[in-house]
Amino acid sequence: MGNRHGPAGSVGTRTQPAAEYDGGLTTDRNFHIKSTRHIMILAGEPSGDFHGAALVRALKQLCPGIRTTGIGGKEMAGQGADIFFPIDKLSAMGLVQVIRQFGTIKQAFSLVKRRLKTDLPDAVVLIDYPGFNLKIAGFIKQHYDIPVCYYIAPKVWAWNAKRLDTISKVTDHVALIFPFEIPIYKAKKISATYVGNPLVDEYPQSLPVLSKDNKKGLSNDLLIGLLPGSRSAEIDKLLPVMLDSAGIIAKRYPHLRFLISSGIKQHEERIKHIVSHHPNSDLCRIVTGRPKQIFDRTSLLIAASGTVTLEAALNFVPTVIIYKMSDVAYRLAQLLVKTKYIGLANLIVGRQVMPELIQDNANAKAISETVLSMLPELENHKQQLYQVRRRLGLPGAPKRTAAIILNLIHKNEAPKTCLTNSGKSD
User: What is the rounded CA–CA span in Å between residue 376 and residue 383?
Assistant: First the structure.
């Protein structure tokens, strides 16, 4: 099939705001397409499992009785998906880790091929994890006549834009989650739709009422959040410098305290070890669980670059973005990465609404100076984050994506059967 037509029969990229397009199926009613419908969803990382779970839930809302299988984790399984390969075996980051897990990745690839042969789905959905998913998509297009939809596509806007050619060949439609992706796919004439960002569904609250007095004094119970990342290497590099920064900030504001996010349970001991051996440990407390509880309690964040900084923007929490990597990796990134910013909020708005301190600039002096300059201006920094939510549009990304997937199935079977809104074949 390949990426040649949109889900509603149009050519090219759909550029309507997320709220205006649903993939050719209205999302406010149930479509009883067939209770035996089967969607295979392939998510190779925890974030993909989270978004995959929301997609499974949306598919069930539009098509009750639909069956979902795939690679995922506890979140997808919790929504009723039959997980035939767990993501905790696949979450490798970096070249060394990928090489170490090559055997496991190969095993997963073989299992997907076997499941395609013994339990062929009506459609396959790819969620992120491009190194694995694009290869699987190529195999599907060579051997099967079923639609492939990419949800949360590779970050071609940052690096490896050559993947666009592969995406064009091996997918039928791409559900985009960032508005700045639209012109990239349109230029390549790849069938794609901006469906909105799923994090808007996760944080649907309205805009907060901001104080008109931007210069008011800082409260005595002010908290700053430290989010050192979700990977071991990030935590090892970033948490110590965050703690160093905390000490400098506390000298200016002795009443300030810091909450450290341990989003993944398996990293809690690593974080405890680093904190307990640091001279500023008495300033900090570790909080385990999703970062929302950090957002709700803090006035400002120092955070590792990543999706969590977009979550912070949607919660209107001013944030200093930092990142450090090995010198070799940084030099390579300078050659490959083509974006002006690394923060998603900055990319979405097109200007720096969250300060970025990268590599050598991510030092305790620079971080603390940036934080200290922001503290008296917190209301202004919150106001700058308004535009992020406005640019992303309304909630409903999983349901729009689900509608696109079901419509792709309908289009693929159109010569064989005609689907009506009642779910009956003509």
Answer: 14
